[in-house]
Amino acid sequence: MRGRGPGTTYESRLTTHGRRYHVFVPTFRDTALILDHHPFKDRHLIVSALTPSFGVVRGVLRSARGGRIPLAGSVQILSKVELEFFRKPTSELATFSRIELLESSFALAGDLRRSTASAVVADLLLTYCPPDEPAPRRYRLGCTALDALLAAIDPDRVVAYIQFWVLHLGGLMPTPDALDGNPSTEELAFLIACRRVALAELDLVVPEGALRRLDALVRNHAERPLRALDFYREYGS
Fold first, then answer.
1. Which residues neighbour 44 within 8 Å (Cβ) at sequence distance 6 or greater?
2. How far apart are CA 191 and CA 210, in angstroms?
């Protein structure tokens, strides 16, 4: 039976609550960007994915590291996928029942600057996207970054643009007239352009002042260290 919401189906799954009985557990389907993954037990992965309809979803991808199921290749950081998942009422983690690759970020792996920039983008989206809330604008922002990096747009420009917008969407980016420290004309022009111009059309070099300001803002407002950004500034920028 199909659910009322888009991308939602209902399947009968057997769960255990002291005794065994059948309950209807919703299975959700959506496009997503892979933001993070790490090993879980011997053969599984914990995957964090950003969806437009459900926000950040964290779940288990079973047998992804066993070699028999070609799923691990679908969870490259910032790759675009279609996924299906369900979550039992008593579980904090979802279970991914299907992940299908739509657009791979694998081409970035051979370029240190672009690959580390993609990790920064994923880390920023994971940090600044509230869990379990629809996030269509942040999802589109991530897709824009993936397209730009694949098109070989300057990684510094991509990172700065994403920094600006995660702050802006969270209500954390000061307006130009409220910036402290007497920003230069070039810095103001770049920040205003980030607000008004699509990333693919933004042809300005990131001023040093804008780079330092955006780095400081995302670090100050983050609830955890932004290690991908630290690595990028040390080795990739």
1. 60, 61, 62, 63, 64, 65
2. 7
Q: What is the CATH number of domain 8-104?
A: 2.40.50.140
User: Checking DSSP bridges between strand 44-51 and strand 55-61, what pairing results, if any?
Assistant: antiparallel
Q: How many residues does the chain have?
A: 237
CA distance 111 to 93: 33
Tell the residue number behind the tokens 């070989």, with chain if given. 152
Q: What is the topology classification, in CATH, of domain 107-236?
A: de novo design (two linked rop proteins) (1.20.1440)
Q: How many whole angstroms from its chain centre is CA 35?
A: 4
pLDDT in tens, 137-196: 999 999 999 999 999 999 999 999 999 999 999 999 999 999 999 999 999 999 999 999
Beta carbons within 8 Å of 118's beta carbon, 6+ residues apart: 77, 78, 105, 108, 145, 146, 149
Four-point Cα dihedral 165, 171, 173, 177, nearest 10: 130
